[in-house]
Amino acid sequence: MAHIIVVGNEKGGSGKSTTTMHVATALARLGHRVGGLDLDVRQRSFGRYLENRTAFAAREGLDLPTPVLGELGQGQDPLTPALTRLEAECDFILLDCPGSHTALSQMAHTVADTLLTPMNDSFVDFDLLARMSPEGKVLGPSIYAEMVWAARQMRAQAGAGPIDWLVLRNRLGTQAMHNKRKVGGALDTLSKRIGFRVAPGFSERVIFRELFPRGLTLLDLKDLGTEQLSMSNIAARQELRDLIGELNLPGVAVTF
């Protein structure tokens, strides 16, 4: 059975597609067979990313490790047949969820072995995880956390294994600002209550926006003849290396 990684958050602009693409491509570069499904049927950012990559590689004559982009099925359950097709040829399957609550996204969370929830480091994004008092006290889980809890319950009833849930703090400031400390403290408190791990994600970098039209990731730059990476790009590669290590996926050794 393929290991299924779901990247989900009901808020747009948190970095889900960038995270999905970089994790998927990193696993492919490490020699694993990787598939992907874009569950955001309108924006299709992850699907477009992979399509851009395939087109650029063909145009430039490059052999870039590329995840297989699957197609959703038809009818009331478009996810199951798509997963069945990919599982026959993949070690890992990544599902990129839309930034809203949909039946398809809810279904995806019930099949997740690993759940990644990227969030911007602000209390606006934190509000989807937990309700807070005006004084900053965590009152209890909010809408997205409740949905994950329901998915966990369904998996337990079906006899499936637990979900390893990681919340990724994207766009962290470089300085130890007051808001950064408060968000970190609130996440630490909430993680103990509802059962997730907290890990640093990606900082805000222009390089991510520049790579999308060609479907490239940070790990592809040397294939393009970029021998001398900027300090920002080196730091970004280290963030990706740390993230892959933090995922603790079965059979994955970080060697890039």
Written description of the protein model:
- With about 260 residues, the chain is an alpha/beta fold.
- It has a single domain (about 5-245), classed as P-loop containing nucleotide triphosphate hydrolases (Rossmann fold), CATH 3.40.50.300.
- It has 9 helices and 9 strands.
- The strands form 2 sheets. A 7-stranded parallel sheet has the order 3-2-4-1-5-8-9, sandwiched between helices.
- Helix 1 (about 15-30) packs across helix 2 and helix 4 crosses helix 6 (about 145-155).
- The radius of gyration is 18 Å and the shape is globular.
- The relative contact order is 0.18.
- InterPro entries: DNA_Partitioning_ATPase, MipZ, P-loop_NTPase.
- Pfam families: MipZ (PF09140).
- It comes from Paracoccus alcaliphilus.
- This is Chromosome partitioning protein.
Topology:
Layout: E1 3-7, H1 16-29, E2 34-38, H2 45-60, E3 68-69, H3 79-87, E4 92-96, H4 103-110, E5 114-120, H5 123-126, E6 130-132, E7 138-141, H6 143-157, E8 164-170, H7 178-194, E9 197-200, H8 206-211, H9 231-247
Parallel strand pairs: 1-4, 1-5, 2-3, 2-4, 5-8, 8-9
Antiparallel strand pairs: 6-7
